């Protein structure tokens, strides 16, 4: 399966060749502006594509994505060699505000990462030894993994907006995408922390004459970097959308999850939100270089998506996988996925069969939150009952189960070892990509709002008194 070129050139530049003088500086008699030839920070912004006179051509845009290794996990995270393998470490996050790393040989804690002030909703790996997380505390945070027994190191806190953040993923060029209850997909710089793009399609435009948007839907619950400059997002407006992260443009919108239909029962008949559409809860790679991926939904279905013509969504297949809403889906091996559901089961599927073949059904004590691959026989289950459960699904037996956090686990992510197929002296882009359509001071407004909201929350907590 050959991917088409998705580079169409950089965005229209919103910053010129010289720094714009802000009002607070213009009216400050003590302020002395730098000469253009002395403004090193602005020169760096021009170098990174965030300012200048002429937008990048498609060739210049593609050049920014080049790494010494053509098959880089930064630009092609969906390749099979970056999905399939036996992890050394698994990362978990929880409603207890903590992130933990676990040794997959002994299943002992390696490190704890403490700093979030509310539920941690998702974690992803970043550049081999770092972790990117998002939380209901309005932030994303960047952490560095270290030796066993040491405290996880917080590198950076990014204040996003005054709403809980539900999904995050790393992007090429030292950027990240994040979405949450503000109904906006944001691209922000991991170097400066500033917002580069606000993509508000889920909030503003939707199916059925914007029915969902008028009903208040549009919150983002899943984001997935497919390849190079293409990002997928899933929302409670029932759509999956593809975005160009370099221009902020929406490339494709599709509904794959279409509600309970006739199974909704008499109380739900006529209610569009449950009968005809459903929230997209999670997406995962299938080892197909981002040209195919899977999503799951509260309507009990899994959809396998095909990305045609580089950036157009097509439903490849859809099947009912559970008797209740599906909360998570994960890669479990070659052409194999695992699903977690409100029916208190985890199921393993051979998705490329017709119809998809159920390989294993495992009952869980509570509702499992997430699942990932340990090896060809074994999965790691993050439990809603605060446990980790290691299960050999081919032999249908528990390897181990233990309490891992003080509250519900939210997510689990495998960290694959650096094997020859993945090893290269330079897997990563060297120069940050700063394409943007949001300028100062607008690119800091949301962060300021998040900080102010957290100050109010902490003040109210510290000064609480019963009436």
Automatic annotation (TrEMBL):
<keyword id="KW-0853">WD repeat</keyword>
<dbReference type="InterPro" id="IPR001680">
    <property type="entry name" value="WD40_rpt"/>
</dbReference>
<dbReference type="InterPro" id="IPR015943">
    <property type="entry name" value="WD40/YVTN_repeat-like_dom_sf"/>
</dbReference>
<protein>
    <submittedName>
        <fullName>Uncharacterized WD repeat-containing protein alr2800</fullName>
    </submittedName>
</protein>
<feature type="repeat" description="WD">
    <location>
        <begin position="229"/>
        <end position="253"/>
    </location>
</feature>
<dbReference type="InterPro" id="IPR020472">
    <property type="entry name" value="WD40_PAC1"/>
</dbReference>
<dbReference type="InterPro" id="IPR036322">
    <property type="entry name" value="WD40_repeat_dom_sf"/>
</dbReference>
<dbReference type="Pfam" id="PF00400">
    <property type="entry name" value="WD40"/>
</dbReference>
<keyword id="KW-0677">Repeat</keyword>
<feature type="repeat" description="WD">
    <location>
        <begin position="319"/>
        <end position="350"/>
    </location>
</feature>
<dbReference type="InterPro" id="IPR019775">
    <property type="entry name" value="WD40_repeat_CS"/>
</dbReference>
């Amino acid at each position: 399966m050959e991917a088409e070129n998705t580079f169409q050139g950089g965005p229209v530049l919103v910053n010129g060749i010289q720094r714009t003088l802000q009002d607070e500086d213009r009216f400050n008699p003590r302020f002395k502006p730098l000469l253009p030839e002395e403004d090193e920070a602005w020169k760096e912004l021009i170098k990174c594509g965030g300012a200048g006179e002429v937008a990048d051509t498609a060739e210049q845009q593609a050049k920014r994505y080049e790494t010494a290794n053509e098959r880089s996990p930064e630009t092609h995270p969906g390749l099979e060699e970056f999905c399939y393998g036996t992890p050394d470490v698994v990362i978990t996050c929880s409603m207890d505000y903590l992130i933990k790393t676990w040794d997959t040989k002994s299943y002992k804690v390696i490190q704890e990462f403490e700093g979030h002030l509310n539920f941690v909703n998702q974690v992803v790996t970043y550049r081999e030894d770092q972790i990117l997380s998002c939380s209901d505390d309005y932030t994303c945070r960047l952490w560095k993994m270290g030796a066993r027994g040491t405290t996880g190191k917080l590198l950076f806190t990014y204040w996003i907006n005054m709403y809980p953040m539900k999904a995050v993923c790393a992007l090429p060029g030292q950027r990240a995408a994040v979405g949450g209850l503000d109904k906006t997909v944001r691209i922000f710089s991991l170097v400066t922390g500033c917002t580069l793009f606000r993509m508000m399609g889920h909030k503003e435009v939707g199916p059925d004459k914007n029915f969902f948007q008028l009903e208040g839907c549009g919150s983002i619950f899943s984001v997935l970097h497919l390849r190079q400059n293409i990002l997928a997002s899933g929302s409670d407006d029932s759509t999956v959308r593809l975005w160009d992260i370099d221009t902020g443009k929406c490339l494709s919108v599709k509904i794959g999850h279409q509600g309970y239909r006739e199974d909704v029962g008499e109380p739900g008949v006529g209610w569009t939100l449950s009968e005809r559409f459903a929230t997209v809860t999670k997406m995962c790679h299938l080892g197909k270089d981002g040209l195919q991926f899977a999503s799951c939904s509260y309507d009990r279905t899994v959809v396998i998506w095909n990305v045609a013509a580089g950036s157009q969504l097509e439903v490849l297949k859809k099947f009912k996988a559970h008797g209740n809403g599906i909360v998570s889906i994960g890669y479990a091996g070659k052409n194999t996925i695992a699903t977690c559901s409100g029916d208190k089961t985890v199921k393993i599927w051979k998705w490329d069969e017709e119809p998809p073949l159920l390989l294993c059904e495992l009952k869980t004590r509570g509702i499992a939150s997430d699942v990932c691959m340990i090896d060809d026989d074994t999965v790691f289950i993050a439990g809603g009952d605060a446990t980790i459960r290691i299960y050999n699904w081919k032999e249908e037996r528990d390897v181990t189960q233990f309490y891992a956090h003080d509250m519900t686990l939210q997510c689990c992510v495998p960290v694959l070892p650096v094997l020859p197929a993945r090893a290269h002296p330079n897997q990563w882009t060297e120069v940050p990509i700063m394409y943007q359509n949001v300028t100062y001071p607008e690119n800091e407004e949301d962060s300021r709002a998040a900080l102010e909201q957290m100050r109010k929350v902490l003040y109210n907590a510290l000064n609480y008194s019963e009436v």
